[in-house]
Amino acid sequence: MPMYEFKCPRCGSVTTELCKMGEKGDELSCKECGALGLKRLISGFASLGVSGGNGGGNCAPGCSGNCSGCH
Question: Which stretches of the chain score pLDDT less than 50?
Answer without folding.
Answer: 53-55
